[in-house]
Each structure stands twice: as C-alpha cells, then as structure tokens.
Design brief:
Strand order of the largest sheet: 3-2-1-4-5-9-8
Helix content: 25-40%
CATH topology: Rossmann fold
Distance between the termini: 27 Å
CATH architecture: 3-Layer(aba) Sandwich
Number of helices: 10
Length: about 250
C-alpha cells in the first residue's frame, strides 16, 4: 500500500463508524433509501434509471449511502474504499435495506486487475474523493481498466474553485499543486477538545483542467460536463459531473 494511502486509511478508520451512526443509524437510513432509491442519487438520477442487472463499481463509496440505492435499483454493486469502519457501516446499511453489496477495502490504485479488469458496466464516484490521490492519472487509469468496453464513468466531485478555497493552506492559489496534511472530512463535527486526537489525511487539490485532461489521457471519451451550484451560494459552482465512456 502506498504511503499516502496508509495515511488516509489511518485517518478514515478513526471514529468513522461512530460519525456515520451519529448522522443516522443503518436502520434509519435504510428505511429512507427504500422509499425512493432513485431520488437519493440526486444530481445523477438520469444515469441510473435503467441499471437492473448492471455491474457498478462505486469507487471510494464510503458509507454505502449511494451503493445501497444502486443495489435497490437492481445493480450488482461493488464498493472500493480505504476504510474498514466505512465498510462496517455500509454492510450494515445494505443488510437493513435487504440488498447485497460487495466491499473491497484497500488502496484503490492497487486494485487487482487479475480479478477486476474489464468487469464493470459503470463506475461511479461522488462526494469529494479526488483530493485523496496524489497521482490522478493512476487513479483514472485504474477506473478505465475496471470498466468493460463501452463502460460508463460518472465522476462527480467538489468543484475545484470550492475545494481550493475551503482550506487555509491553499486559499487564494488555484494552481497550488502541493501534497499537504489536512483534516479528515468529518473531524469538524466533533467538539474542539476531541479534534486534537484526529490523525491527518494526505491531500492534493486539482484544477479543473488537470481533472478533465486526466480523464482524456486515460482513454475516455467525455460525453457531458456539468457544473452544479454551491449549496451555500448558488452564484458559485459547488460540484461538477463528468459523464464519459470507455
């Protein structure tokens, strides 16, 4: 496992299960997801209307709150993620929703292609995960290799303008390419006294052109690129989504 992955694994296995439960137990969230699973995919609903029987790789799928709706819609879903704590919550969530999901814990950039090459019809990433990878080309190439010919990529992440400005170390320099230590995403939800014990992640923020060009270099054909408003200020971009085909 790469050193960056080891660091991020340590961070994401520190009280993650506790945090996810504080935002809703598996039993509570499962009941919500079962009512209308397609609506829980929010901005990306249009890509998942006809996925019954399809194999979907949910890359860095974390707590399963996107994988479980996909499974409820009939997809065969595998989560790839770094955290055993995330896996614990996701598997409990799937059990409570009466669906099955597979969960592979490890460094995504070291996924076994002997097992998974050309295995998936779709790959789905969302929620802000690109900054956990210091080499975007390796990340994109790994997704490309996972997909079958004509496989689809739905890649959604924080818009770089939002993400760059969210951390004091990089605010004001959109083109900063440093790898630096930063807080795990849920640390801020704990009280200040507890926060001092949280291990750091290893992060690297990207420009929009770096992301798009990495998708192209991997071999994908980009079919759509969409920008979505920031939830806190709709005059600014908050997220983006790339739809591409192998």
């Amino acid at each position: 496992m790469r050193e960056q992955a080891k660091k991020n694994k340590t961070a994401w296995e520190y009280r993650a299960y506790e945090f996810w439960n504080s935002r809703g137990t598996p039993e509570e969230i499962a009941e919500q997801l079962k009512v209308d699973p397609l609506s829980k995919l929010k901005l990306h609903k249009k890509y998942f209307k006809n996925i019954d029987g399809m194999k979907v790789a949910n890359v860095c799928g974390s707590n399963g709150r996107k994988a479980v709706p996909l499974a409820l819609l009939g997809a065969d879903v595998t989560i790839f993620d770094i955290s055993e704590e995330n896996k614990r919550y996701a598997k409990e969530l799937a059990d409570c929703a009466d669906v099955n999901i597979k969960y592979e814990v490890g460094d995504f950039c070291e996924v076994s292609m002997d097992i998974f090459k050309n295995s998936f019809d779709m790959a789905y990433t969302e929620g802000g995960i690109l900054h956990y990878f210091s080499d975007l080309d390796i990340f994109m190439n790994t997704i490309y290799e996972l997909l079958k010919p004509k496989g689809q990529l739905i890649l959604s992440d924080f818009h770089p303008l939002r993400k760059i400005n969210s951390d004091g170390q990089t605010e004001g320099d959109y083109f900063d390419s440093r790898i630096f230590n930063g807080a795990v995403a849920y640390k801020k939800f704990f009280n200040e006294k507890e926060q001092s014990s949280f291990p750091d992640c290893s992060l690297r923020f990207y420009t929009l052109s770096e992301i798009i060009n990495s998708v192209i270099r991997a071999g994908f054909t980009i079919k759509e690129f969409n920008e979505h408003p920031n939830y806190e200020n709709e005059k600014l971009p908050g997220l983006f989504t790339i739809y591409a085909v192998k």
